[in-house]
Fold this sequence. Notes:
Layout: H1 3-21, E1 28-30, E2 37-39, H2 40-56, E3 61-64, E4 69-70, E5 76-84, H3 86-90, E6 97-104, E7 107-115, E8 120-125, E9 129-132, E10 135-136, E11 149-153, H4 159-172, E12 175-178, H5 182-191, E13 196-199, H6 204-216, E14 220-222, E15 236-239, H7 244-253
Helix pairs in contact: 1-2, 4-7, 5-6
Amino acid sequence: MDPLSLAIETAAEAGALLQRHLDRPLETLEKSARGDIVTAADRASEAFILRRLRDAFPASTLLGEEGGAHRGTSDERWIVDPLDGTTNYAHGYPLYCVSIAYERGGELVCGAIFAPALGELYAVERGAGATCNGRRLAVSAAPSVAQSLVCTGFFPARYERNIEHFARLSRTAQGVRRDGSAALDLAFVASGRFDAFWELDLHAWDVAAGALMVREAGGRVSAIDGGEFAVDAGSVLASNGLTHAEMIRCLADAE
């Protein structure tokens, strides 16, 4: 099976697994910070995804959020978030997803994001565009931050680190949202729902598939300061491209 088909099918099946777990007693454990939680559903989803990927691509490196890792022998890497938006999931808030990205030679090649509660399956392949449920995606045409709906994310325990950025954009943008799923927020930029998204303190599994989607939908992705984006760098600024320079200035002014 080719990597894109595998990513799509596996994300869809993992999303169905998450929905089945909603009928079971939900136990949550806190991880690195207040508000950073994990459930049995996260772990079950990751175990399922990594098993599928390892069977199909045994030489690939596997990187999963919940500690599932396998050092491969090829230049391929799968980057997996089995449940992005765990707090939302635990409270029945429908903005959560499965995110799977495939990288070869350090280049993002394809990926899939599935939001099971929304029934939205996003897919992307470098050079071939991005889709949601088969419909081709395109970023918005908002020309300025003042006309933009923008989004960010942070754990409550890191409020002070993020509040100046949040306040600056709240004074400038048409609206600011904080939805709790970076992968889905990036997919929403790619689809034109959001005009820009920024966040600090991220990991590769939060951004890999979504960043490629934004680019393939015609948007721009960088580090928050405008520097080159890297999946392992820890921050992201994604936009429709038209608002990117202004977003960089707004975020810099808030430092």
